[in-house]
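Might you be able to check the backbone structure tokens below? Thank you kindly.
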Amino acid sequence: MKRFLIPFVAFMLGSAFIASFYIGILTWAQGWDYASSQLMRDRWYVLPIIVGFGVQAALYTILRFRLFIPITSTGHAGSMIGASGGTSATAMVACCIHHVTDVLPILGLSAAASFLTRYQRPFMLVGLAMNLIGIGVMLFVLYRERQKLQPVPETI
């Protein structure tokens, strides 16, 4: 039971965290009405990033707690998990960095604000791509470790 419950809870918590982070930034910058309208406008980019982050959280718990592989067979998965965690964090930053444009003109950085606003969609697409890469890395680790468990056929 815990083999399925722990990843599910990690998925829900990871998705809720990243969605709260996104909505929190938007609400802080412009208010709730703006946040909800932006979420609806960008839903085709934001929702896959939120789900992707949740999937990465679930896969990470599977690898971290060794739920589907024996304890002795994880190998060097830790460094790959760290790399994937970095990609998911970068994906969220890439997703939300364009909302800093609301504050940047106040700080005298209007050129940076213009750049971030102009390339908002590419930032979100890069964030989504990084999420997919992180998921792919973790699935590869799981596949590789599961292959180690398969019996090797004897050659005569």
Remarks:
- The mean pLDDT is 75.
- The helical segments are 2-30, 32-41, 43-64, 77-96, 110-118, 120-149.
